[in-house]
Fold CBS domain-containing protein.
Amino acid sequence: MTASENEPGRPAVRTEGSTDALPLAPTMGMSLDAAKMPRRSTLVDRRVLRITAVSIVLGVLAALIARLLTALIGVVTNLAFYGRWSTAFSSPADAVPHLGWWVVLVPVAGGLIVGVMARWGSRAIRGHGIPEAMEQVLLNESKIPPRITFLKPISSAIAIGTGGPFGAEGPIIATGGALGSFIGQVLKVTGSERKVLLAAGAAAGMAAVFSAPIAAVVLAVELLLFELRPRSLIPVALACVAATGMRYLLQGTTPVFQMPVLAAPGAMALFLYVLIGALIGVVSVWTTRLVYGIEDWFEKLPIHWMWWPALGGVVVGVVGYFAPLTLGVGYTNIENILNGRLTLAALAFLCVMKFLSWSIALGSGTSGGTLAPLFTIGGALGALIGIGIAALAPQFGMDPRIAALVGMASIFAGASRALLTAVVFAFETTGQPVGLLPLLGGCTAAYLISALMMRNTIMTEKIVRRGVRVPSEYVADYLDQVGVDEACSRNVVTLRTSQALAEVRRWLAEESPQAQHQGYPVVDEHGHVQGVLTRRSLLDPQWHYTLTLSELVTRPPIAVSESHSLREAADHMVAESVGRLVVVSKDDPRKLVGIITRGDILAAHARRLREARHSARHLRFRDGLKPRPAP
């Protein structure tokens, strides 16, 4: 290890995923590290293999945790509603007839327990988990407190098992992410690698619950990683493969929401599915606003937030008494909606009552997920619209089951703006290839409406209110697309090693335009760059005027090749704490070809801004063309 690598902040910039930049001649007498040249960024390296191996193990663990959480929810449900000990996944709805009004007390008790756990355990267990994980990724180098790894699943199992209208997927995603973060804090890894482990654990949890590995990978990219790079994609993808493989081993390979084989839609039906997606996109926007409006209402209550989940539990219990199907995760409800087993009245009643129960419970700050409730609400709404169109205009070929599928995915695409996740998830969980085109059209329409009407999403609104800036667009790094040779200044004013300091000071005192620069490369008699001297050093009174410049050069040049990118140059400036770099030839690293400064890097963005803002017509057509005269 070189001395430069021991400086604070240097290893992450210079060694992570890097190789040597240029082959150097043995006679040069100056090594690459001595010249302080940036190293080429690579797609993957041995550290990626290490993180990938850890991620695969993490995927297996996340699948086992998902299975354990499902069993824990079953235990709480059976104890709370049936008074028996069993891990079977039971529906609370069947217990309502014999419990009567006593059913109201069950979610209230669950809310009290969750409130106590949040106050004296960790407040981070409140909510549905994904926004909290996003906040840790963006602000805290993906460092989730280790106690969340067991507090989140236990609190969620209690909330859901006592009738909370949530899905198990959110808590499992949060728990998998917490486990990945914990492992990333135990091992010696970078903040970027810890983020990958957090995303791998979260995605593996989702893959294990729904047997949807591709959707889980896309979810990690859209909501957690905020990037698409091989060094992050590979570990997350293989973690999801491992988690799904464990699910196959434990639970089989059948889709979570089984549907019969459906007929491909016609052109008119496809157009209507897109319209359904747009309508439900509007619903997703108002759903998000109402959820956070309810949360704001709870914030105004004159009681401690510890009691809010119990108040939300009162609403859950009362709604559950009149609409038992709203209690619990409700995966069976989603399958019934997708298969057209519910009547028009039952769909409308379930849609309204599920939204009422879920939105108030979520706003109260209890622990639970959002995916399953949104799928229930959106699927029921899509089915309602599909049944109506099929009854009024059967000639259009509308299938209410596909309409339900589009509604289920569109409300999630609009509320979270995770477009690709919604499309792929709906396909993987149902295994319906004919639904892909309607899903893509409907979800894109919902995404468009959401982007027009709402700045933040149901996933980001909470943390944006806390001052967190959440990336909403993922684009290629512009600086990585521009070479140093395009941006550097080539008319460089240089000094010679043989010059005396007195001569240089007289020249600086003349205040000519060439003497106004803040730094000057120093070259020897052969034109080989030896270092850089700043104006401040040249005028420093501690140096005697009889010294030559070769005696003032105290460290090797901080250089960059003209074949490097501006991203590598900018990172090198940060690593070396300098504002300018010497640019050397790619063919002869001893030959000076220019200099690049921070200002040159900023100026390179001018083309990007011009391309984004300047509109012009480049193909012009002459108006009023006269017919060619006859010969």
